[in-house]
Design a protein that fits this description.
CATH topology of the largest domain: Rossmann fold
Strand order of the largest sheet: 13-12-11-14-15-17-16
Number of helices: 8
Oligomer: single chain
Shape: globular
Order of helices and strands: EEEEEEHEEEHEHEHEHEHEHEHEE
Structural class: alpha/beta
Helix content: 25-40%
Length: 389
């Protein structure tokens, strides 16, 4: 039976709670009368005085009023906007503890959503820079009627209002220069968005095309994928959702040949130029939806010697693409994802009926101080695979 909220758990009431967990998304979880209460900017085992702000049928939300007993892992956040700006969730926690939490959250999502009782999850690979790493941000603008001025910054953590931000602690220094420039020459009206970006060296990236946001950890991400690819000893690589060709080009020396597939035609044109710039001649890039291009590519590349690399958007793979791969059964699937929940869902689909096995999952902290974590999952065809259904 679902728990119901105690009658005293009403907005405006105050309570003293102990944080029992930290949910994926960054909010502390306490319980009052058996019901979950979500508390931002609180950490595991802390005793916190909270004020209820929202009451739902089966849970409530609260804000911390006072940290009565702080965690030994609590630190002073360096950014003056932390606690208002919605960009970071963990600046108040020592970095090693952030890494331990992220691994535990990935394990729990794989168990709960993926159906893996004991998933093989490696420790989280830390970023060499916990601050000053991000190379792309979206600034928002909003007219503040009360103060009669234009706000330029990021969304507040608890609503759609914009927090006025002069600099960002997790942004590269050059990006903060761009933020100051935007503030000096703001958009003509509220509601407009401005993307600021530091382009990577030696890679052509169109304005709206995807590229990893943490160049400091990017070499380790590539090496992680390379190690798993070479461990499977395949000769061919299909780089699906390839963007501007980063993975295919970076891994070209580890395979006989490769093909990249991407819906963004501008990114594909950039990928071809990136391949020429890096002297890579053993690959090709195709513009089109994955589900449309995969059947022909899977006929050309022998399944028993092919790795399929998936790096989809946060929503994950479409069921049609999963079904196509389960039917053809390439030897290895490497799945790169920044959203562990959709990753767990898709891994469950690939491994259903024993078609694939999850050999290893490696989290990498591409997003320090935030709830997000990148993961590389290594799926191998089962020794005696069942017929996909």
């Amino acid at each position: 039976m679902n728990a119901t909220l105690p009658p005293t758990l009403a907005p405006g009431t105050r309570h003293r709670v102990t944080i029992e967990d930290v949910a994926f998304g960054g909010q502390g979880v306490a319980r009052i009368g058996g019901c979950a209460v979500f508390v931002p900017f609180a950490w595991l085992d802390e005793v916190v005085d909270v004020e209820i702000t929202e009451r739902k049928k089966q849970f409530a939300r609260a804000i911390p009023v006072r940290i009565e007993q702080p965690s030994p892992h609590r630190v002073h956040p360096p950014c003056p906007h932390f606690g208002a700006c919605g960009g970071c969730q963990y600046q108040h926690v020592a970095y090693p503890e952030q890494l331990r939490l992220k691994r535990r959250q990935v394990v729990e999502l794989l168990r709960r959503i993926g159906g893996f009782p004991e998933p093989a999850v490696a420790p989280v690979v830390p970023s060499p820079h916990a601050y000053g790493y991000r190379n792309r941000l979206m600034l928002r603008s909003q007219w503040n009627r009360r103060e009669q001025r234009l706000m330029v910054g990021f969304l507040r953590w608890d609503n759609r209002w914009v927090v006025d931000v002069e600099s960002c602690a997790i942004a590269e220094p050059a990006l903060n220069d761009q933020i100051r420039s935007v503030r000096a020459h703001p958009p003509p009206r509220g509601g407009l968005k401005v993307v600021v970006r530091v382009l990577p060296d030696d890679w052509e990236v169109p304005a709206d095309s995807f590229f990893q946001n943490n160049p400091r950890l990017l070499p380790e991400l590539v090496e992680c994928v390379r190690r798993r690819l070479e461990d499977a000893a395949t000769r061919h690589l299909l780089d699906v959702y390839c963007g501007v060709g980063f993975f295919g080009i970076s891994l070209a020396g580890s395979v006989q040949n490769f093909a990249g597939v991407e819906y963004d035609a501008m990114a594909i044109r950039a990928a071809r130029r990136n391949a020429a710039r890096h002297g890579v001649v053993n690959g090709e890039f195709l513009a089109g939806e994955a589900e449309t291009c995969l059947p022909e590519l899977l006929r050309r590349f022998p399944a028993d010697s092919t790795t399929v690399l998936l790096d989809p958007p946060r929503v994950g793979c479409r069921p049609q693409a999963v079904a196509q791969l389960r039917s053809v059964q390439p030897r290895q699937i490497l799945y790169v994802s920044c959203h562990p929940a959709t990753l767990a869902r898709d891994l469950n689909a690939f491994c259903r009926d024993g078609v694939y096995q999850l050999v290893q999952l490696t989290p990498l902290d591409m997003f320090p101080q935030t709830q997000h974590v990148e993961c590389v999952a290594d799926l191998r065809l089962s020794p005696t695979p069942h017929r996909a259904v």
